[in-house]
Amino acid sequence: MSESDHMETFCNKSSGNFILNSTYHTNLNAHLSALSNQSSLAKYYNLTTGLASDTVHGMFLCTGDVNRTTCNSCVKTATIEIAKNCTNNRELMIRYSDKFFLLTLETQPNTSWRSTDLIPKTFGKFKERLSDKMGEVIVRSSMLSSSFTPYYLMDTTRYDNLYDLESIVQCTSYLDPGNCSTCLKLALQEIIECCSDNRWAMIWTPKCLVSFDTYDSSLPPLPPPTRSGCNKLGGMVLAVAASVLAFLL
Predict the structure, then answer these.
(1) Of 101, 43, 49, 46, the residue nearest 235 (C-alpha)
(2) How far apart are CA 49 and CA 106, in angstroms?
(3) Residue 88 neighbours by CB distance under 10 Å
(4) Which residue, 178, 247, 161, is CA-closest to 209?
(5) pLDDT digits 0-9 by tens, 163-206
(6) Are 32 and 79 in contact, with CB atoms under 8 Å apart?
(7) Contact present, 110 and 203 (Cβ < 8 Å)
(8) What is the mean pLDDT of the chain?
(9) For 93-206, where are the alpha helices, taking DSSP H only?
(10) Helices (H) and strands (E) in the chain, counts
(11) Where is the Gnk2-homologous domain (predicted)?
């Protein structure tokens, strides 16, 4: 999928507001524009604009399996949604913030999507397989801090000649391997608890994502399934495009 799809917006009301047409506001507009432009060149990027109390820190992250055109479309959509939905707030997620946040482990807010279709009984001990396989993928991904797309890993495993389990994990490139692994393990715990009976699901946090999908590679592709979503609110803004995660603080 290549179309941008706005998913959720989280605005941190407790972070305070900025004054319209202030220096911070000017810096923010320039900052969002720069991030949007950079998303046509890279899948992840961070930037700092301004000085002292007028400083804006920002980043975006697109998953490793999407092209730059899709990434750029997502980040552009996210910057528009931020301006529209979180007027005056100093902290959001695509994300931007007046606080430096890149190296900090954060698990809230998070949001998830899952299919409305449940897994068949013929899949057997699916929950256990999902937990074991994604745990393995998380361990492998934490070793990829210096790869071309840091911490991104996709694994596809065939089970009982019945179905394929596709597992995707990714952290922001600025986390150290230990915090990346912790973020992914906590996200996996959430997805196991909420969605291990579903055909596919994905969960995003400010610093990592976990996703799984089941399908039969021996059959023609099915049309896109319907989906449902849930979230745990915190303070930030999430705008996502299909397989893309875009953050700014």
Answers:
(1) 101
(2) 22
(3) 11
(4) 247
(5) 999 999 998 888 888 888 998 999 999 999 989 999 999 888 87
(6) yes
(7) yes
(8) 75
(9) 126-141, 177-195
(10) 4, 12
(11) 6-105, 107-217
Domain boundaries, the chain: 5-97, 110-232
User: d(Cα 9, Cα 15) in Å, to the nearest integer?
Assistant: 15
Q: How far is CA 151 from CA 131, 155, 162, 208, 237, in A?
A: 19, 13, 29, 9, 23
Dist. CA 86–CA 232, nearest whole Å: 17
Same fold, 5-97 and 110-232: yes
The whole-number pLDDT of residue 133 equals 96
Domain 5-97, CATH class in plain words: alpha beta
- Kindly report whether the peptide bond that precedes residue 109 is cis, defined as omega within 30 degrees of 0: yes
Give residue-wise pLDDT tens across range 213-244.
Answer: 999 888 766 555 554 544 443 333 333 332 33
Q: With contact defined as beta carbons under 8 Å apart, do 224 and 2 qualify?
A: no
The CA R_g of the chain, rounded to the nearest whole Å, is 18
User: Taking 60 as the threshold, does the pLDDT of residue 4 lie above it?
Assistant: no
How many CA atoms lie within 13 Å of 127's alpha carbon, on the beta-carbon side?
11
Cβ(113)–Cβ(209) under 8 Å? no
The domain over range 110-232 is classified in CATH as 3.30.430.20: yes
Reading phi first (left if > 0) and then psi (alpha if -120 to 50, else beta), residue 245 is in beta
Amino acid of residue 38: Q
- Comparing C-alpha atoms, which of 206, 229, 208 is closest to residue 95? 206
